[in-house]
Amino acid sequence: MCISWTLQKWNCALTYWRLLQVENTNSSISKMSFRSIEQLLRRNSKTKISQSIATGIHDQKEEKSVQSLRESLLASNQLPEKFDDYHVLLRFLRMRGFDVLKAKATFLNMLKWREDFAVDAIAKDFKVEEYDALKRCYPHGFHGVDKFGRPLYIERIGLVDLNKLMQVMSIDRYVKYHISEQEKTISLRYPACSLAAKKHISSTTAILDVKGLGMNNFSKAAREMFIEIQKIDSNYYPETLNQLYIINAGSGFRALWKVLKAFMEARTLAKIQVLGTNYLSTILQTIEPSNLPDFLGGTCTCSATGGCLLQDKGPWTDTRIIHASEEPSARHVDPTSGKKRTLGMLLEDNKVRDEMSENIQQNPVNEQIFGKIQELEDCAVQTKEVLETLICKQKELAIHILQLRKLLGDEAHAEKKQE
Question: Locate the CRAL-TRIO domain: which residues (predicted)?
Fold first, then answer.
């Protein structure tokens, strides 16, 4: 899947390179009419610049499954406008292995849960009066982005004072707090990160510091809260985790981990790496030191704001993004594609318009050239990300091969001794 996706990106880049060659061979770009360039673009590009940022490049098989799920939901009048979104439907399909019927059942279960639990009211009205006290006894929060542009979430669960946490906030209120944060991530953090990274972002990279955590200090109440949160995230916010690094995992936590794994699905476990104290080289492959707090080995201190985990640091705190999210046009349908315009699309349109308006008025061809540059840059960035992932996997495979060879060597040595 990764290799085919990589080839798709290379094909995208080559297509535009060939297009540029054809244009330069046939005639000078400056002499081409606006209409002729527009026709070439329509034949060689499925989406506009702003759409590619908001929606990404679609896999044809995935797009077909999304369309099938969407049509099925629309036919039964069970697709609220809020969730009539390509990537929302895709997340539920991925969750159920692209079985449309199972994905539909899970999607409808999510809608029922939202209604029963009054999720929209929680997202709008829930206030966390205990915020400061909660942060003191449970250090956690968003802190910048990873190298791909995804939100970076950090928890120092090994420092949690469970007794004090239970006094500060009940399990019921903590669950509502968690839901409100998930809603904020979906509605604001991901669109803001998509704008900043100039590509579609819909998942989070997380670090869980478990130093000092083990069976003895993980109470029954804490286990119940963990199970409830895991159930909510897995069933109602599926496929929003990109990677979870569990760091400083000692023998105590590893014993606890054997128990916790039983409550997690295989698709989630596949995204989790359990690391010991020598974790830094691994996570620095994904996260820049400047976005990693100093207590985890990075260079950020956030001393002016009271500490790295006390602030909701990230592109979503940009005032321009907050203002744009309130504009009604962010929810309008794009007449050229029939798709809803997302916040990321709106903001990118504004950015391009501000930077290019004067130049475009003088020469409209520049808009098309700029578009090609942007799409080529997107292809290059995404291809680099896939290559980095493949290199990382290659190293892991090499380690596994060495371990297996050593195991065979040990067994052969043991057999010789027995002879």
Answer: 130-304
The phi and psi torsions of 154 (rounded to 5 degrees) equal: -130, 135
Q: Two tokens at 410?
A: 């040990």
List the structure tokens of 148: 């791909």
- Select from 1.10.10.10, 3.40.525.10, 3.40.50.720, 3.40.50.10420 the CATH code of 122-317: 3.40.525.10
Tokens of 44: 């060689």
Q: Phi and psi of 153, rounded to 5°?
A: -115, 135
Strand partners, 340: 333
Beta-carbon-side half-sphere exposure of residue 33 (alpha carbons within 13 Å):
3
Beta carbons within 10 angstroms of residue 127's beta carbon: 8
Q: Where are the domains of the chain?
A: 1-45+365-413, 122-317
Question: What single-letter DSSP state applies at residue 399?
Answer: H
Angle CA 95–100–103, to nearest 5:
40
Residue with token string 């997340």:
91
> 87-121: per-residue pLDDT in tens?
999 999 999 999 999 999 999 999 999 999 999 99
Upper half-sphere CA count for residue 115 (Cβ side, 13 Å): 7
The answer, yes or no, to whether residue 129 has pLDDT greater than 50, is yes
Q: How high does pLDDT run on average in the chain?
A: 77
C-beta separation of 197 from 373 below 8 A: no
Residue 404 scores a pLDDT above 80: yes
- pLDDT bin (cut points 50, 70, 90) of residue 126 is very high
Spatial contact of 163 and 207, defined as CB atoms under 8 Å apart: no
**Spatial distance between the Cα atoms of 229 and 227, rounded to a whole number of angstroms:** 6
pTM of this structure: 0.67
| Residue among 86, 113, 131 at smallest CA distance from 339 | 86
* Other CB atoms within 10 Å distance of the CB of residue 371: 19
SS3 state at 358: helix
Tell me the pLDDT band of 372, cut-offs 50, 70 and 90.
low
State the Cα–Cα distance between residues 66 and 51, nearest whole angstrom: 17
Tokens of 133: 């006290």
CA distance 232 to 209: 22
